[in-house]
Write a structure and sequence with these properties.
Strand content: 5-15%
Mean pLDDT: 87
Number of domains: 3
Shape: globular
Order of helices and strands: HHHHHEEEEEEEHHHHHH
Number of strands: 7
Largest sheet: 4 strands, antiparallel
Structural class: alpha+beta
Length: 416
């Protein structure tokens, strides 16, 4: 594990700091700084344009496609400096982090010229169509089909847990284009317009009233023949690269959201006098140690990516198990600390009554007006799902056992 950044990376860090200081609102990041709702809305609108003009959106992408061609260590420094000030980076996760890099790696020149500029400018938004009702962790069991009809693919089937589908312009999805091929073959990776006949989006309403997840039904929906990424029937290998993007660049900042939550949980424990409880103190100590382990493992992941030592399968799977199970355990600790007060919706009252109400977390759903959960209450709800999405903890353990430890594959249960 190498913790030394090269001189050129530190010089780049100073460049980023100077730009942030010149472009963020005066007082940003200082105690007491706040914006009203109108100011925040205006800032969010203008900030995307400012980022684009500064060249910070997808800055790792090649310069010929609108990026800055940053090296991995420069990407890490960029993420660190934005995270240090809680400066927002453009939040189109599916476009910036998943489908954009996939098109750059596997797409034709025509696909790059059509889609990459629109992703960079925010002209189109995306959602991901991988999971199906009977194809979640076992993604290769997908049943959605795409049949070629002249110059178009005709898509039929169903996707589920499709985040932000109700707002997306395009979906990148996996469909079976050769039903006679083996399970992991005969699958293609398609770029499909969402705003067309034959596409129906049904929101999946959550307990807090929000509905960012959706079911998406395709009934003879269409996309151009040339919208296959990586070649017909080769979608599985393309999808596997999509799922692996950006792990290195966020390696030293991924623990920060957990650190913020931990600090708020400690504040809640102190506010309620719970730090005198030995079991609470032990739980907090255990949580703190695990956040530090995540921080150290981030540097290990970065070193692995920089030196190409090819431990990504082990690091990725073990890290997913570790942080998702940590988060579920720690959010349970928070609810225990709050006691009955934790059962009261904390997002609509005085935030001083609950330090957790002061913690915004972009990864967690915040409650609707009719169900105003606090920041930490939202994280508690969301932590229930984190050992499932992105590969269940059980699947991740199989990956470690089979690919890292060389253990025999899990036996298949007999059918019938």
């Amino acid at each position: 594990m190498d913790l030394t950044y090269p001189p050129e990376a530190e010089a780049f860090r100073l460049e980023i700091r100077a730009w942030l200081e010149a472009n963020l609102p005066e007082g940003w990041g200082t105690p007491g700084f706040s914006m009203d709702q109108g100011e925040r809305k205006a800032f969010n609108r203008d900030w995307v344009r400012t980022l684009h003009e500064g060249g910070w959106i997808c800055a790792s992408w090649p310069s010929e496609y609108g990026g800055r061609g940053l090296s991995l260590i420069e990407q890490v420094v960029l993420n660190e400096e934005f995270a240090r000030l809680d400066a927002p980076m453009r939040a189109d996760f599916f476009g910036d982090t998943l489908v954009g890099p996939t098109i750059l790696q596997w797409g034709t020149e025509e696909q790059k010229m059509e889609f990459i500029p629109q992703i960079l400018s925010g002209a189109i938004s995306w959602c991901q169509g991988f999971s199906e009702p009977d194809a979640g962790s076992d993604l290769a069991s997908l049943k959605t089909t795409a049949v070629l009809d002249g110059d178009e693919w005709v898509i039929s089937g169903q996707k589920v847990w499709t985040t932000q589908a109700q707002f997306a312009d395009y979906i990148f999805l996996l469909a079976r284009t050769d039903p006679s091929a083996p399970k992991h073959r005969g699958i293609s990776y398609l770029l499909v317009p969402m705003k067309q006949p034959g596409v129906e989006v049904r929101p999946i309403k959550q307990i807090d009233g929000s509905a960012e997840f959706n079911e998406v039904f395709f009934d003879n929906a269409r996309c151009p023949r040339q919208n296959v990424v990586g070649g017909v029937h080769d979608g599985w290998k393309v999808a596997m690269t999509t799922l692996g993007f950006e792990r290195g660049a966020s390696s030293t900042t991924g623990h920060r959201r957990f650190q913020k939550e931990f600090d708020a949980i400690v504040a809640a424990a102190r506010s309620g006098g719970r730090t005198r409880d030995a079991a609470v103190r032990q739980g907090l100590a255990r949580a703190w140690s695990k956040v530090k382990i995540m921080q150290i493992n981030g540097y290990r992941s970065l070193t692995d990516a920089l030196y190409g030592t090819h431990h990504a399968a082990a690091l990725g799977a073990t890290h997913k198990i570790f942080w998702s199970e940590y988060h579920r355990e720690t959010m349970n600790l928070y609810i225990d600390i709050m006691g009955m007060h934790g059962q009261v919706l904390g997002g609509g009252g005085d935030p001083d009554d609950d330090p957790g109400a002061k913690v915004p977390d972009a990864t967690a759903r915040r409650g609707t007006a009719s169900y105003p959960v606090s920041g930490l209450q939202a994280s508690f709800f969301f932590s229930r799902s984190e050992t499932i999405w992105g590969g269940t903890a059980e699947i991740q353990r199989n990956i470690v056992g089979e690919r890292v430890l060389g253990l025999p594959k899990e036996p298949k249960l007999p059918v019938g």
